[in-house]
Amino acid sequence: MSNVTVIGTQWGDEGKGKIVDWLASRADIVVRFQGGHNAGHTLVVGDQVYKLSLLPSGLVRGKIGVIGNGVVVDPKALMTEIDRVTGQGLVVTPETLWIAENAPLILPVHGALDRAREAARGEHKIGTTGRGIGPAYEDKVARRAIRICDLAEPETLDWKLDELLLHHNTLLAGLGAETFTKEQLKDFLTEITPRLLPFSCQVWDRLDEARRAGRRILFEGAQAVMLDVDHGTYPYVTSSNTVAAVAASGSGVSPSSVGFVLGIAKAYTTRVGEGPFPTELHDQTGRTLGERGHEFGTVTGRPRRCGWFDAVLIRRAVRVGGVSGIALTKLDVLDGLDEIFICIGYELDGQKIETFPSAPGAQSRVKPVYETMPGWKETTAGARSWAELPAQAIKYVRRIEELIEAPVTLLSTSPERDDTILMRDPFED
Ligand code: IMP
To answer: Across the chain, what does the average pLDDT equal?
Structure first.
């Protein structure tokens, strides 16, 4: 019996929510290990629609949810989310939600700096979610973050706030944005401390106990490999590592606990925010994919950019992300197209290349080299077995497997939880 780690292989929004929800029902504990409330997904359970950003999905299934040390926690956003789902009937208590006491906090200064910097970047803006994720990770690495455990030590908090404000107010003033007083931040923290502290604990220790007891752990990644701060389309990325290796360091478990790595890939590609996107479509087909796939950002509501499946990028995500198998989602969005394109390589300045370059200039100049396949007229929406799929759709999936050098172990054919074709149960691997 293995644990499972789920990561995105494209630029996020691959439909992780549904897959994670499905897997959560077979797990005992669901762990978030990176990112923050920049992530977002919608879970439909019966007649309830849950919108989650920071809370691990397992809570919806009555499982223990864990926020690991690799996550940056906005305490206000967290409490708002807890209040919302509690209002919908979920039970969120320190018994069901464990938050790492060494997780760094996102404070109001972080969001303010994120937005002020984006405004100042002009045409080179990253298109962040504006929620302070980047500045909070910067503070962690610069060793000036306020962590949850600091809330229990007023004397520590006092000098740490001075250090934090010295840095942030200098930057905010330089950018012409409003600065913050120590009192403002103290008031903010005083208000949230009594609610937040009871959830905090030594997550690594509890996870180790769970491992010894043979409990199944699902690690729920946020964002995706192409947004990874090292392996993605830097600088148009998020500020954390999103690959499966981080499930270990971001929650305090051994690398061997990561288990089966399920990479989620959409049957086409989307991206929100700025940055290179070789297979992006600016034509009617792109608009059709966006409309059929309901491609609007869950967090910001921005329309997603749409394009063809890029096998080269996913092959890379499979390799650097340690992907054992792929869950292919939204195949039904391609139903009825005459022809389907798959990117199998690139051309850069007249030269054929087989991997995606690292420098931003080259990344924006690459032209995709496509292989085309006939589409299918039948609908794949709602298929629950391989036999229900049109032959041409099966050929498309098989070709993808060859190109990305990984098996498709799960196929999702509609937003409904049960419209899923399972080739291999990742927990049984
Ligand atoms: P940040 O994470 O808010 O700093 O944003 C950096 C980049 O990552 C932007 O392009 C965002 O649109 C993108 N991003 C962050 N979180 C997500 C997500 O959950 N899905 C898709 N894109 C995301």
So the answer is: 95
